[in-house]
Amino acid sequence: MAASAADQMLQRIKARDNLPAHVAIIMDGNGRWAGKRGRPRTAGHREGVKAVKRTVEAAIEVGVRALTLYAFSTENWRRPRIEVAAIMHLLYETTKREMREMFENNICLTASGDLDGLSLRQRTILRKAMAMTKDNSGLVLNLALNYSGRAEILQAVKRIAADVAGRKMKLDDITETTFAGYLQTNGLPDPDLLIRTSGEYRLSNFLLWQTSYTELYITDTLWPDFGRAEFFAALEDYQKRERRFGAVPKGGQKKKK
Ligand code: IPE
Ligand code: IPE
Ligand code: MG
Question: pTM to 2 decimals?
Answer without folding.
Answer: 0.96
